[in-house]
Amino acid sequence: MPDVQALVNDFLIKLKKRKIEGSQATARQTAELLRSVISQQRVPYTNQAGALIDAVRAVGEQLIAANPVELAVGNIVRRILHIIREEDLSLTTAAIAGLNLSAASDGDDDDDGERDEHTVLSAAAVAASARNALRPPSLQTLLEDMPESVDIPHTSSSGGDSEGKSKSADKSSRTRRLKHDVIEAVNELIQDINTCHEQIAEQAVEHIHQNLKITLLELETIESILCVIMGEVILTLGSSKTVLEFLYAAKEKKRSFRVFVAEGAPRYQGHLLAKELVTRGLHTTLITDSAVFAIISRVNMVIVGAHAVMANGGVIVPVGLNMVALAAQKHAVPFVVLAGSHKLCPLYPHNPEVLLNELRSPSELLDFGEFSDCLDFGSGIGSPLLHVVNPAFDYVPPKLVSLFITDTGGHNPSYMYRLIADYYSADDLVSFPKNIQIFTMKKVCYLKRKSCYLSCGVSLNKWKWNLLVARMTFLTISMPSQLFLVFLCSLGVTMVRSDG
User: Fold this and answer.
1) How many CB atoms lie within 10 A of CB 278?
2) CA gap 197, 411 in Å, rounded
3) Could you tell me where this protein is found in the cell (predicted)?
């Protein structure tokens, strides 16, 4: 088998040089790399999950640092860390349930063979009850974790030697089983990433409606006649494979519609999408980005892809889509975002570790040969006369999004944080900036920020205080000190001024 470190180094070079195009390919290759790391990782008899978590986290930190803008890398790393914790918790609860069952059977043998019926919860049900105390269980989690019967073999107590051998055998089998279960879960994750386009496309008929049967007497204008003949009008921008498969699936279900594609300057990815749509037999109109506001009143729905979906329901999208979202809101046109589950990011856009944008080469905007005179240092101040800014992404706030369509169904922006919470563990989300320090003394928590000491005299659980501090951390990134103190007062926090 190839060396894991060589695989990691090769993948790091690809991330740094931006050789992997698309979040889906990046997510799939990240999961495959971490699967290799897990399969070749040696685990001790004790704290096996901890050893796997440390190995995945060490590699994940390198991958995230190589390309911070590609949030799909961090999403997959956190997903696999969550999988390790879930599988370890399931095995632990199954082992405890087996011990309780065997102890109950031994007690019944001593009482003249009288046995009582004991209800033993399955490992999945116990794991679900202990899963992430930061949130209540969602409906999807409750449905997936229904109690099932667990077949646990009864151990016979024939002697000390047999018991010792069985315990050692159980340890070794549990070690192999943990890695096996984790790898199987990672394989399922890779399969979900590969089939996310198909699962999203299956929902196209639910959102692109059938034509209405209207008589010619009810049509008053030429525009209304064209609307009935051509069906719905859908607007998109740039190129997205998810959008392509979604629209093609609607066409296969005999939906009649026309697609307006904004070209997506300066990379003009919309040209590629328009060509693919025409090849598959869809009526397509290519427009410039500046013409979006002019034709948005004739559009029935805006359907776009996403680079990442944040925990607050905001979306990181290709540059230019924020303008489209504002135009859609102005004319009350639904703005629908298609995104696979690997694009659901548990972080917020104001997290310090989130890098929302990157600048591309100025050569996409202008020719250096024609503008060479403007790029020299003739001003005498050590900087060129002309600066070129070419951002790659836009941020669309949740208030501009009408609906998210993922491989698990359609969801409102306000529900995304609950959906994201099912895929990640809270231990992998909370991180504190350097200017915030946490001190705990008995049941009184202190938070120090600059020269202000803030004390909360209420007895708080550890997870509640961590959640409160996490919210404070998010708000202090761009919040002035005075406004930050007003926010703490609203939470009932007592403040004491100190000059130390």
Assistant:
1) 14
2) 17
3) Cytoplasm, Cytosol
Tokens 């209800």, located at residue: 119
Q: Are 196 and 342 in contact (CB under 8 A)?
A: yes
Domain 201-357+392-426 CATH assignment equals 3.40.50.10470: yes
Where residue 333 falls among pLDDT bands split at 50, 70, 90? Answer: very high
* Identity of the residue numbered 272: L
Average pLDDT over residues 386-390: 86
pLDDT per residue over 111-130, tens digit each?
555 444 444 444 445 444 54
Q: How far apart are the first and last CA of the chain?
A: 59
pLDDT tens per residue across span 236-253: 999 999 999 999 999 999
For the stretch 150-160, pLDDT in tens is: 444 444 445 55
Q: From the CA atom positions of the chain, what is the Rg in Å? A: 28
Q: What are the backbone angles phi and psi of residue 168, rounded to the nearest 5°?
A: -65, -35
Find how far residue 204's CA is from the centre of its chain: 22
Q: Contact at 8 Å (CB) between 68 and 76? A: no
Average pLDDT over residues 456-479: 41
Q: How far is residue 74 from each of residues 19, 66, 307, 344, 453, measured CA to CA in Å?
A: 17, 11, 13, 10, 34
Q: Where are the domains of the chain?
A: 4-194, 201-357+392-426, 430-497
Structure tokens at 312: 């607050």
Report the phi/psi class of residue 254: left, alpha or beta, with left for phi > 0 and alpha for psi in -120 to 50. left
Region class of 345: left (phi > 0), else alpha (psi between -120 and 50), else beta: beta
**Single-letter amino acid, residue 216:** L
